[in-house]
Design a protein that fits this description.
alpha/beta, Aspartate Aminotransferase, domain 1, Aspartate Aminotransferase, domain 2, 2 domains, five-stranded antiparallel β-sheet, 17 helices, 16 strands, binds pyridoxal-5'-phosphate
């Protein structure tokens, strides 16, 4: 008998087993065990159903990843077909597979500029670790092995491996399980609403970019390997850079010949209304990391797209790069990702985000939630948005994070059939890219109810 169709297990039994055996990521296990995990049983489109039969609108596309929505049978069919034909083979030892090669070709075509070379991994964190090693290796090959320093931003999230945690700028993460990897430097984030101290967005963009130049000069330009940034900081609270920020950052990287890396794990595959956030913000990165939307979360797969400059040097002068994962280019994950890309392209999902649903979500959020007493500011592009919850809107005074007003709001959402995430005193949204205008209306109705309950 098929395991999924076995006798139904009682929800309370699942919760008891979960408490006994399952350590959840990013979770206070004791607190969770006291109330028991919510069990998600099935999903379709933008909706989830839990074991109590409640229908929940998923304002987060899982973890910013289910871009084509739930229940796309084509992906399950492709996975089954590929598993029957070739469930696994590695790409290490002079071999390749058709799905991995086809996917590399497709990704080279949809990524911006000359990112023509693709390295596969399984998660965003692994993609970031690959980038850390790859850019340092690049400088070794170029005869400058001292160029090791990686610069990112405070409150940036670049994954949970030791490399990703160290590169990321989450102070709570740095405090646990250290020491962190040396050679990581952090500069201020471009959080205009919360940290601009009266500067206009344009002035603040320059101030934040200047922080990069100051850091480079402090470390010594010839010691810096790369600057890494998400086009929009997702897990940091959807921090959307003010106008001029990326142009100024890019100019500084070029001035000091520092590689520019875009972490597109969240922004990639249509989230901001283009294939990549780099296109939305006119960034020309030397490398990008991608995961999540690459397979719409249907299979774990990630990749690093590498520009000609870095790839050609590594190929011509680097010899063997001692780096890779057993499942790099996994044929089933690659086949599923290819089908996901086909759907994104043929159903014009990204164009719809750019022209219809993205502008609609942004406009409706501002119109319907912007005047709410709790909402200080709304920012975002396409189908990603963040709301600062403010104590005093006139002075931009945010709630003390200890009050955890975001968590209170998030809990109301959870109880009221909406998944929205709290990042400190910010609430964030990132629904499946196939969400309709009517579903956006429903999502905003529910968010409004939850904000009212939070006041
Ligand atoms: N980079 C960014 C920008 C992310 O948002 C994430 C995950 O949310 C990661 C890297 C790490 O990805 P993963 O959780 O797949 O390891």
């Amino acid at each position: 008998m098929n395991a999924i169709n076995k006798e139904p297990v009682r929800s309370d039994d699942i919760r008891a087993l979960d408490a006994e055996h399952h350590l959840h990521p990013f979770t206070d296990t004791q607190a969770l065990n006291n109330k028991g995990a919510r069990i998600i049983e099935r999903a379709e489109g933008v909706y989830l159903w839990d074991s109590e039969g409640n229908r929940i609108i998923d304002g987060m596309a899982g973890l910013w990843c289910v871009n084509i929505g739930y229940g796309r049978k084509e992906l399950a069919d492709v996975a089954k077909e590929q598993m029957n034909q070739l469930p696994y083979y590695n790409t290490f030892f002079q071999t390749t597979t058709n799905p991995a090669t086809q996917l590399a070709k497709e990704l080279a075509a949809v990524t911006p500029g000359d990112l023509n070379h693709i390295f596969f991994a399984n998660s965003g964190s692994e993609a970031i670790d690959t980038i850390i090693r790859m850019v340092r290796r690049y400088w070794e090959v170029e005869g400058k092995p001292w160029r090791k320093v990686m610069i990112s931003r405070n409150n940036a999230y670049h994954g949970s491996t030791i490399g990703g945690t160290s590169l990321g700028g989450m102070s709570a993460m740095h405090k646990q399980g250290g020491p962190m990897v040396p050679g990581m430097e952090h500069i201020r984030q471009p959080y205009w609403y919360g940290e601009a101290d009266g500067q206009s967005p344009e002035e603040f963009a320059q101030t934040c970019a200047q922080a990069l130049e100051e850091k480079i000069l402090q470390v010594g330009p010839d010691n810096v390997a790369a600057f890494v940034g998400e086009p929009i900081q997702g897990a940091g609270g959807v921090i959307t850079p003010p106008p001029g920020y990326w142009a100024a950052i890019q100019k500084i990287c070029r001035k000091y010949d520092i590689l520019l890396v875009a972490d597109e794990v969240i922004c990639g595959f249509g989230r901001t209304g283009n294939w990549f956030g780099s296109q939305t913000f006119d960034i020309k990165p030397d490398l990008i990391s991608m995961a999540k939307g690459l397979s719409s979360g249907y299979q774990p797969i990630s990749a690093v797209a590498v520009g000609d400059r870095v790839a050609n040097a590594l190929i011509a002068k680097g010899g063997e790069f001692f780096h890779g994962f057993t499942y790099s280019g996994h044929p089933v994950a690659a086949a599923v990702a290819l089908e996901n890309l086909r759907i994104l392209r043929e159903e014009r999902v990204i164009e719809q985000v750019r022209d219809e649903t993205g502008p609609y979500l942004q406009q409706q959020l501002r119109e319907r939630l912007g005047g709410h007493p709790l909402v200080g500011h709304i920012e975002g592009v396409g189908l990603i948005a963040g709301m600062a919850l403010a104590q005093d809107k006139s002075t931009h005074k945010l709630f003390d994070s200890n009050l955890d007003v975001g968590t209170i709001c998030r809990n109301h959402c959870f109880a009221n059939g909406l998944i929205m995430r709290a990042c400190g005193n910010r609430m964030v949204l990132s629904p499946p890219l196939v969400i309709s205008k009517a579903e956006i209306d429903e999502l905003i109705d529910k968010a409004l109810t939850c904000l009212d309950l939070t006041v």
